[in-house]
Amino acid sequence: xxxxxxxxxxxxxxxxxxxxxxxxxxxxxxxxxxxxxxxxxxxxxxxxxxxxxxxxxxxxxxxxxxxxxxxxxxxxxxxxxxxxxxxxxxxxxxxxxxxxxxxxxxxxxxxxxxxxxxxxxxxxxxxxxx
Length: 130
Fold this sequence. Notes:
Layout: E1 2-6, H1 11-27, E2 30-38, H2 45-63, E3 69-76, H3 80-90, E4 95-99, H4 105-111, H5 114-121, E5 126-129
Helix pairs in contact: 3-5
């Protein structure tokens, strides 16, 4: 079994990693943790370093539990939701875990919802945590 965690370094993402660990232990699964940084003029080396450090900490959490884990930082023009769905399709992921946060209806209309996109388009079951 393969589990994918969408990770942005915030507390809810760390909770998603902890939940992935529980599922990985129960189902003898491996875990992929990916973070997405939108490519463009606003992407700085500091952003990459912060993302890599957060991913390393998440990977260490799983490896300390003897759970096979790979991490990846994706930088392109796709949205986070598109990247998660594409990765899940390309790597035959069996379960996708993402953290969600409450947003107003107006915010969802103006900015979209990564979770909504993933839930509607993922090729596998999606587990959300808040």
